[in-house]
Amino acid sequence: MSHKMVKKLQLRMQPTNRSIKVANCASEKCVGTLNEVPISMGALVVPMEFLVLEETAYDILIGLPVMIQLRARPDYYRMVLTIHYGGDSEILNYEYEQDSGYTSEDEFTSASAE
């Protein structure tokens, strides 16, 4: 979670000396941790733990360990994600921007040109 979001939500974080490896394989120092933060996912409210980073591309990022814990099942044809928590399940719709201006043809063309 971003430090900006922690401040906006007025959450109280615990200090930490942890660092994590981010998507570009760089090491980022965490500024704190959050425990048992209730996150609404459709009708489900799931308590989650977060590492807090000073600068992030997204305010909140839910990673693979949480998806495994929630037994998440993506359905790319229907564009939904089914999650399970505490004996209940929820089907969430994906948000997908179809008109991003980028196509797989662009990737193919640029990869072929190199």
Silhouette: globular
User: What composes the largest sheet?
Assistant: 3 strands, antiparallel
Number of strands: 6
CATH class: Mainly Beta
Series of H and E elements? HEEEHEEEH
Q: What percent strand?
A: 35-45%
Q: Percent of residues in helical segments?
A: 10-25%
Alpha-beta content class: alpha+beta
Major sheet: arrangement of strands: 1-2-3
| Radius of gyration, CA atoms, in whole angstroms | 17 Å
Oligomer: single chain
Unreliable sequence segments: 104-114
Determine the number of helices (DSSP H or I, runs of at least 4 residues).
3
Overall mean pLDDT: 84
CATH topology: Cathepsin D, subunit A, domain 1
Distance between the termini: 37 Å
- Kindly give the count of domains: 1
CATH architecture: Beta Barrel
Describe the protein's architecture and organization:
The structure is a single chain. It is built from three helices and six strands; from the N terminus they run H-E-E-E-H-E-E-E-H. By secondary structure, it is α+β, with helices and mostly antiparallel strands. It has one domain: Cathepsin D, subunit A, domain 1 (Beta Barrel), CATH 2.40.70. A hairpin with a 5-residue loop joins strand 1 and strand 2. The N and C termini lie far apart (37 Å).
Primary descriptors:
38% strand; 114 residues; alpha+beta; Cathepsin D, subunit A, domain 1; 3-stranded antiparallel sheet
Give a concise summary.
Strands 1-2-3 form a three-stranded antiparallel beta sheet, with no helix packed on it. It has a three-stranded antiparallel beta sheet with strand order 4-5-6, with no helix packed on it. Helix content is 20%, strand content 38%. The protein has helices at residues 3-9, 64-69, 104-113; strands spanning 19-21, 27-41, 44-53, 73-75, 80-85, 88-93.
